[in-house]
Amino acid sequence: MGKRYAYFEGCFVPIEEANINIQTNSFHYGTAIFEGIRAYWSEDKNQLFGLFFKEHYERMLANCKILNMKIVETADSLSEITVELLRKCEHRENVYIRPIVYFRNLQISPKLVDYDTEFAIYTVPLGDYLDTKKGLKVVTSSFRRINDSMIPARCKVAGAYVNSAFAKTEAIMAGADEAIMLNTDGTVAEGSAENLFIIRNGVAITTPSYSNILEGITRNAVIELLKDEFGMEVVERPILRSELYVADEAFFTGTGAQVAPIAEIDGRVIGDGKIGELTLKLQELYFGIVKGDVDKYSHWLTPIY
Ligand code: PMP
Predict the structure, then answer these.
(1) Is the entire prediction scored with pTM above 0.90?
(2) Ligand 1 atom with the shortest distance to the CA of 214
(3) Positions in the chain whose pLDDT score sits under 70
């Protein structure tokens, strides 16, 4: 990595100069839309590969719509800025990219009208967010998932992550790696920053968009791989808590989490407590694809150099 830069107020600036005023409206009310994107460094290919740039920026723009935020950039122009930023930082390692759109006005009042938007992007080197090798210890949280009539979970809005932070903190304090959040009706939603899959009797099951989940880009990619590469049936339907305990395999998906196997939920061992056979195969394929080793999926990637 070279010197760190951010894209801030329309320019590339050293990261130390990318600071907002304490009065910034979105800082107070959590009304900022953000994304989490990864780029993977391949030593073999001497190349950095951005993963799903277009999909992430399309989701970000869709979420801006939910928050009534006007932004002139397109998914393509935002992708181009990201490529330029990564080049400027001379990253030669795995990187996490954090774009954020916010109301820049220095005014008090939680509302979604009459404000101007600004956006920023910065990058940070990142390895595993969750351990992908050991099989995670997971607990269901006593904090229930926000629902669409409160804060829409499909919207990656800063304020929604108070809900995630409560759940994740509860998990950490209980000595676990991650939390699964349930909906107010007791059905399963998702992890604090991941979507969830279980495998039972040879069928993959994941919670649907109406179960108050972020519509994960990795989730979509994994559904495609399970169907097309492993010939599996994938069912999107509400999952009950007790179904988690009797699953043969379980794993999280996410940009940060990647494909992260779950070994234990609420003290119940999943399968035989080792990384599931299918989870392992899926993980290997996913890590190959993101490093540019699988031609068939090279359209998922943006080479940076
Ligand atoms: N759910 C939540 C709450 C998240 O924060 C994330 C991470 N963005 C995900 C699911 C996974 O989404 P994606 O695969 O698009 O990163």
Answers:
(1) yes
(2) 1
(3) none
